[in-house]
Amino acid sequence: MKRLYSSAREALQGLLRDGMTICAGGFGLCGIPERSIDAILESGVKGLTIISNNCGIDDVGLGKLLRAGRIAKMISSYVGENKEFERQYLAGELQLEFNPQGTLAERIRAGGAGISAFFTKTGVGTLVAEGKVHQEFDGETFIMERALRGDLAIIKGWKADEAGNLVFRKTARNFNRVMATAAAIRVAEVEEIVPVGAIDPDAVHLPGIYVKRLFCGAPYDKKIEFRTVRSAEA
Amino acid sequence: MGWTRDQIAARAAKELRDGYYVNLGIGIPTLVANNIPSGISVTLQSENGMLGIGPFPVEGHEDPDLINAGKQTISELPSSVYFGSEDSFAMIRGGHVDLTILGAMEVAENGDIANWIIPGKMIKGMGGAMDLVAGAKKIIVLMEHASKDGSPKFVETCSLPLTGAGVVDMVITDLGAFVRSSRSDPFRVAELASSVSLEELRSKTTASFLV
């Protein structure tokens, strides 16, 4: 079975179509699958539903697909820091489904784990609960949330071995691990591909069973959304 | 006169207990990290997937792979640990986070909180706020007592869509601190800010509270 590909374009070959649902890892600009996003932009597909915590910023990450008018619907938890998003939404050009961040993560986890729905206290008594099944357990009220899955997942890791066993780096793990479980086809980009055996099996964050197609996207020019520093101590 | 933003944060920091796992929101709550009392050790949780947030990095050591939930560059500590968003919210939803301190646009006298949307105007999303107020053991809100147009923010009933219903345990503003011992009790004044009288507090608050 072929798992290794030479580029995003090659890895996504034959997988893209108009109107599909794509799960994308990343939090803000941290750990975003930027090579796959660029290749999706280049492919010209449109009418996409994107499941992602955020939608990039104006000209970075998913913000590029948004600006090009390729996204029909976003399923997200937070889309601040993105003026074009607000403009398209208020103009009625873009559908939006807000989820509490943890509910979003758990809906995707459930989707990847064969759980069709779950109950949570998050959102009870808010707009999020409207129209949802309410159920009392042990004297407390919960709402039912349905699982989420996509047609394709695109994620970014730090390094992977040739069997697809993958390791993330610091807070770039975020939604990447769970997104990689919740779609029919999962494409991972990493900064380095190492031989089988080079990663301690106990240190793998994402087992290769979840990584259908893998490519190295290096070199990366990672962007920082808010650069905050302290002065060096004397 | 009242408290400055830093004094509000310092007042909130008095609520920290040794060994707490704490999530701090964006804005004034972030300043709590600079006011942790000596002799108290707390671990800060960042909902994007980290326990043990360190200070901002020294210039030149910023790492795009290491950010907090406000997307600011941070540093790690020897005790830090990383995990995915699904684990992060499992620990939040599962009640393992002792305290969350966050900002708000409105808090109501019954403990309702609104901080995520102004319909037709501010379209940003709730991020992790709804999960945090539903899951953390204790919720403290830090906010300016009045909004920019002077209207009270600690109110009888929230006018904005809620983030959580009846979940707030303590409110600290530039004018003072309000606390309640359980979520079925009313709030009472725990402390007045410097040079703030009870009359001033009453005149600028539409929530009812005990003294």
Beta content of chain A comes to 25-35%
Q: How large is the share of residues in beta strands of chain B?
A: 15-25%
Which structural category do the helix and sheet elements of chain A fall into?
alpha/beta
At CATH level 2, the architecture of chain B is 3-Layer(aba) Sandwich
The major β-sheet of chain B equals: 9 strands, mixed
Q: What's the order of the H and E elements of chain A? A: EHEHEHEHEHEEEEEEHEEE
Radius of gyration of chain A: 18 Å
* Biggest interface pair, counts: A-B, 60 and 55 residues
Shape of chain B: globular
Order of adjacent strands in the largest pleated sheet of chain A: 1-14-12-9-2-3-4-5
Give the count of structural domains of chain B. Answer: 1
What are the low-pLDDT stretches of chain A, counting only 5+ consecutive residues below 50? none
* Poorly predicted ranges of chain B: none
Distance between the termini of chain B: 20 Å
Give the overall shape of chain A, derived from the CA principal axes: globular
Description:
The complex is a heterodimer of chains A (234) and B (211). By secondary structure, chain A is an alpha/beta fold. Helix content of chain A is 20%, strand content 26%. Chain A has helices at residues 8-12, 34-43, 62-67, 83-90, 101-113, 176-179, and strands at residues 4-5, 21-24, 48-51, 71-76, 95-98, 117-120, 134-137, 140-146, 150-156, 159-161, 166-167, 183-190, 192-194, 213-216. In chain A, the strands form three sheets. Chain A has an eight-stranded parallel beta sheet with strand order 1-14-12-9-2-3-4-5. In chain A, strands 6-8-7 form a three-stranded antiparallel beta sheet. Chain A has a three-stranded mixed beta sheet with strand order 11-10-13, with no helix packed on it. Chain A is globular, with a radius of gyration of 18 Å. The relative contact order of chain A is 0.19. Chain B is α/β, with parallel strands linked by helices. Chain B has a single domain (5-203), classed as Glutaconate Coenzyme A-transferase. Chain B contains five helices and 14 strands. Chain B has a nine-stranded mixed beta sheet, with helices on both faces. In chain B, strands 7-6-11 form a three-stranded mixed beta sheet, with no helix packed on it. In chain B, strand 8 and strand 9 (122-123) form a beta hairpin. In chain B, helix 3 (85-93) runs parallel beside helix 4. The longest helix of chain B has 9 residues, at 5-13. At the A-B interface, helix 4, helix 5 and helix 6 of A face helix 3 and helix 4 of B.
